[in-house]
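re: ur question from yesterday

yeah so i grabbed the chain u mentioned. its 80 aa long if i counted rite. heres the sequnce exactly as i have it in my notes:
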Amino acid sequence: MTGDPAGHPYVIRVRGHVDMVWAARFPGFTVTHDAGGTTTFSGTVVDQAGLYGLISRFRDSGLALISIEPAEWSDTGDAR
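ran it thru and got these structure tokens back, copy pasting raw so excuse formatting
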């Protein structure tokens, strides 16, 4: 995920290993399966309203949220 100066990076974790087909429901986010049995979505949210819309999309998809954390951009431009 490349850093976007117009947005704020977030790392969102959900329970379970989500099928990669779900990535299409969250455009602009990188989807990673973690060793602990969770899935991480990393990407940029433009503003607070966009964050609430994203949270609603997770809820409507039936995904169990574990955490939503603001992130920082790494030297490579990825959210971490």
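noticed a couple things. Strands lie at 8-15, 30-33, 38-45, 65-70. also The chain is about 15% helix and 30% strand.
anyway ttyl
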